[in-house]
Design a protein that fits this description.
Layout: E1 11-12, E2 17-18, E3 25-26, E4 45-46, E5 51-59, H1 61-65, E6 71-79, E7 84-91, E8 101-108, E9 111-117, E10 122-124, E11 130-132, H2 133-139, E12 153-159, E13 164-171, E14 174-178, E15 181-186, E16 189-199, H3 222-229, E17 234-240, H4 241-253, E18 258-262, E19 265-268, H5 273-277, E20 286-291, H6 296-304
Antiparallel strand pairs: 1-4, 2-3, 5-6, 5-16, 6-7, 7-8, 8-9, 9-12, 10-11, 12-13, 13-16, 14-15, 17-20, 18-19, 18-20
Length: 314
């Protein structure tokens, strides 16, 4: 893969290294934060993100193992005197969006956050191909005269040095208004991304790259990795619809993390409950509840009380 030619970015020279999450400074020979053992970043800081960046975004390991492959992209960003910046994003075929999107975000070294908005939304099929939301809904009997936009895509990142940044991205579930009936609910997904500075010249359209390794997950926090990769939830029990809704309400009110599964289709708790069960008169006879391992003990107390007998899955 061709390596883009990199211009030297505007930098502030410093002999110190920093913890990217706590901000403490360390001598140049230090390698990790003494408090949380996070890998330190270079003391060389970037003043602005103005310029052209070449990057790539990918998905969780389980999705990439199923054939969902990463996509390369180009960011063209312009930052004012404050921390706010805006710009555009273009992605490479065949895995990227074919349309040009917009970028709006904030930068405060070493942290960057921005929202990517694409004018046309797509459904990612299991074989990695894309279909527009309008075509997907038309096949289900829902019509729209206009293309439907993609849900906002939220990017968070930390600079490894003055020219390299990496982090995670997330699409949160949302409802898209439809002219012919109820709104269409989209699901959420997450992944990784990284980018490398190319040049200050916004007229340049680079290819290839980034030249650095795709993602160095050792530099991400455990929370960031879990956000993308997920974690196997432990089986709590199988319940009828009425009991399941009662338990789910109580577990959610306690702030516990849970997933549910009805009719052999796994669904996130953030989706409407009726989407899982089909409602009280729906087709799901029973609902399986799974909880985060760290929340399992408290969940059992809420559901089973003093009787800590687990209900084995059938």
């Amino acid at each position: 893969m061709a390596k883009p030619v990199l211009d030297q970015p505007t930098e502030l020279q410093s002999p110190m290294k920093k913890c990217p999450y706590r901000g403490q400074e360390y001598p140049d020979e230090a390698t990790e934060c003494a408090i949380d053992h996070t890998a330190l970043i270079s003391g060389v800081e970037r003043e602005k993100v103005t310029g052209v960046w070449r990057g790539v975004y990918g998905y969780a390991e389980r999705r990439e193992a199923a054939g969902i492959t990463p996509a390369h992209f180009t960011l063209k960003l312009k930052q004012g005197w404050t921390s706010h910046f805006s710009g555009s994003v273009t992605e490479d075929p065949p895995n990227g969006f074919p349309e040009t999107g917009t970028i709006d975000g904030y930068f405060g070294s070493p942290i960057i956050d921005f929202t990517k908005r694409m004018p046309v939304g797509y459904i990612l099929e299991t074989d990695g191909t894309r279909r527009t939301l309008r075509d997907f809904l038309a096949a289900a009997g829902r019509t729209s005269n206009l293309e439907l936009p993609s849900p906002p895509i939220l990017y968070n990142g930390t600079f490894l040095d003055s020219r390299r940044v990496q982090g995670t991205w997330m699409i949160t579930p949302m409802q898209i208004p439809m002219p012919d009936g109820p709104p269409f609910s989209t699901g959420g997904t997450t992944g990784y991304w990284c980018a490398e500075f190319v040049t200050d010249d916004l007229k340049v359209n680079p290819t290839g790259g980034p030249s650095a390794a795709l993602f160095d997950k050792s530099l991400l926090t455990p929370e960031e990795v879990e956000r993308v990769e997920g974690i196997p939830y432990n089986f709590l029990g199988k319940f009828n619809v009425v009991d399941a809704e009662n338990f789910m309400d109580r577990l959610t009110q306690a702030g516990l993390r849970l997933n549910v599964r009805g009719n052999d289709e796994a669904m996130q708790q953030m989706m409407p409950f009726t989407a899982v069960t089909g409602g009280y008169s729906g087709t799901a006879d029973q609902v399986e509840i799974f909880v985060h391992p760290d929340d399992e003990e408290e969940a059992k107390k809420i559901v089973f009380g003093d009787n800590q007998t687990e209900i084995e899955p059938s």
